[in-house]
Design a protein that fits this description.
Elements: H1 3-6, E1 11-18, E2 24-29, E3 33-36, E4 39-44, H2 48-55, E5 58-65, E6 72-83, H3 87-99, E7 110-121
Antiparallel strand pairs: 1-2, 1-5, 3-4, 4-7, 5-6, 6-7
Length: 123
């Protein structure tokens, strides 16, 4: 599976995380920035998903492409690191302004780097 090709498709992404106490959260998330075929980066705000990955480095990302049927992937992820400044975070903020709306990127305060530990099809 080539993430650089998959994530150029329109689709819906859902990031799921769990806090240290096991409470679960799922949120709609954009397609990731592909660093390589095992490293993906998402912009994050200071909300529940970010708080959860700070407590528990494991997450899951489901991406369903916009094509008919169940085309897409389920990814198991492990947090590598977060960054609170830098070129990639600035790019994510600018892209957020374009996709979501002006000034939306200001809420993005972290670039969260993950390694992909498992890839599964939707079905």
């Amino acid at each position: 599976m080539k993430f650089s090709e998959l994530f150029t498709n329109p689709g819906l992404g859902i990031m799921s995380t769990a806090a240290a106490d096991g409470s679960v959260n799922s949120a709609v998330y954009s397609r990731p920035h592909v660093i390589d075929e095992t490293t993906l980066v998402w912009g994050m705000t200071d909300r529940r998903t970010y708080r959860n990955i700070c407590e528990n480095r494991h997450a899951s990302f489901l991406f369903k492409t916009g094509s008919p049927g169940f085309s897409g992937v389920r990814l198991t992820l492990e947090l590598i690191r977060t960054e609170e400044e830098g070129e990639l975070l600035n790019t994510i903020k600018a892209n957020t302004d374009v996709v979501v709306g002006p000034l939306a990127g200001a809420a993005v305060t972290h670039a969260a780097w993950f390694t992909v530990t498992e890839i599964r099809n939707l079905i």
